[in-house]
Design a protein that fits this description.
about 30% helix; Rossmann fold; about 25% strand; single chain; six-stranded mixed beta sheet; about 230 residues; alpha/beta
């Protein structure tokens, strides 16, 4: 069996004195889309932030492409080929779409050109001279994803990409993620919208109280319906 692209082992993290993660274990294989499920406050976003090195106090092991990341600073983690799109999107509000796209540094060969990005995100091409503050929520989310794709990363960490978006935009985001998956992108997704996640994910990890309590492939969703209802209320 091939080695996972991302392997997380016994990951603990703290916010000040608050112990937020209690030994998270998960794997993501190359080319997979994996979703972290769980109610608010169980540690899903914290897991993404800890993987990226955005939480200073953390212990355990995070390996990517076989390289240990746990001791690396944030900028070094990003240069290993992992891109993070936070829930707040992180675009530069006063810069245009074009400027937002070209600002992040390229970390590896194989990133999309601006024109390739506009083929994938035609809405952004129409708004290329608009400032971030002038974009809709859906356009901001598309820009947040698009600017990472230009950098050449191998893996995307996405935190609640459909939060607060209209159903038609949610559908479009799903189509975009499916296209990226077909192109070989590896994705680790945090998502409250279970029905959205069920359409695009290969596997799921269920989190509760700061740790992974279950994991299963999409084919086993029906067999885990009682467990999902218990933890998620779906």
């Amino acid at each position: 069996m091939s080695e996972p692209l991302l392997a997380v082992r016994d990951l603990h993290a703290w916010y000040g004195e608050g112990h937020a993660l209690h030994g998270v274990n998960l794997d993501v294989m190359r080319g997979e889309t994996v979703t972290l499920l769980g109610r608010n406050g169980v540690g899903k976003t914290t897991t993404l932030r800890a993987i990226m090195g955005l939480i200073r106090k953390r212990t355990g092991s995070v390996t990517f492409n076989g390289k240990e990341l746990i001791a690396l600073p944030l900028h070094r983690v990003a240069h290993q080929g992992i891109g993070f799109v936070p829930e707040e999107r992180g675009i530069f509000a006063t810069l245009t779409v074009d400027e937002n796209l070209i600002l992040p540094p390229v970390v590896a060969k194989g990133g999309m050109s601006v024109e390739e990005i506009f083929e994938l995100f035609p809405n952004l091409k129409e708004r290329r001279n608009s400032q971030g503050t002038k974009l809709s929520g859906g356009e901001q989310q598309m820009l947040a994803i698009a600017r990472i794709l230009r950098t050449g990363v191998e893996m995307l960490l996405l935190d609640e990409p459909t939060e607060g978006l209209a159903p038609v935009i949610v559908q479009r985001i799903g189509e975009l993620l499916a296209t990226l998956k077909k192109r070989g992108m590896t994705i680790l997704l945090v998502e409250q919208n279970f029905r959205f996640a069920a359409r695009i994910a290969d596997r799921f990890y269920l989190m509760d109280h700061g740790k992974v309590v279950d994991g299963f492939p999409v084919a086993a969703l029906s067999a885990h319906s009682d467990r999902l209802r218990e933890v998620l209320g779906v």
